[in-house]
Amino acid sequence: NIIRPTPYRISTMTCIFNLNELIDIKHIYDNLDSKFNIKTDDLFEISGCIFGSNPIKGYVPKSRKPTKCKINFYNQLTLSIKLYENKYVKAKLFINGKVQMTGVPDFKTREKCINTIYNLVQSLTPEKKYSCSDIKTVLINSDFDMGCNVNREALHDILLINYNIAVSYESE
User: Fold this and answer.
1) Using CA atoms, how far apart are residues 79 and 96, in angstroms rounded to an integer?
2) Most buried of the four, 2, 68, 121, 165, by CB within 10 Å?
3) What pTM was estimated for this model as a whole?
């Protein structure tokens, strides 16, 4: 039997960039209500945000991973950007002007999300002159189908013991 895996595909990316100015994230949170409407089907629009222990504004999908405890961060604001039905990018805006986006499916979407964030922050703080720089993709998750079952525990052991490759395996 010849194994013919499918070509790999990008499932999600994590991207970062810098707005090159300090961001008053509390001001953004306080004034965001007028900037989104979760009843519309507009794509690449802000659907909601989270800031510290304040109430969630709009709609922010819950993480699929269970968390042990919720820690509130006051140096960041999390925005949810709607891509299409049931698909959102989460963007963390930090007070130092840095931004991290997770759940980005491709490079075209990355650029559209950067523009959405830039336009939002600039419109809410027009006295500042933001600019985007240091745009990087720092993580790409990809996958493919082997066309057969794989004993992941055995593969882990082979890679670790026989080839001395640093690997991790988490059973479900």
Assistant:
1) 16
2) 121
3) 0.80
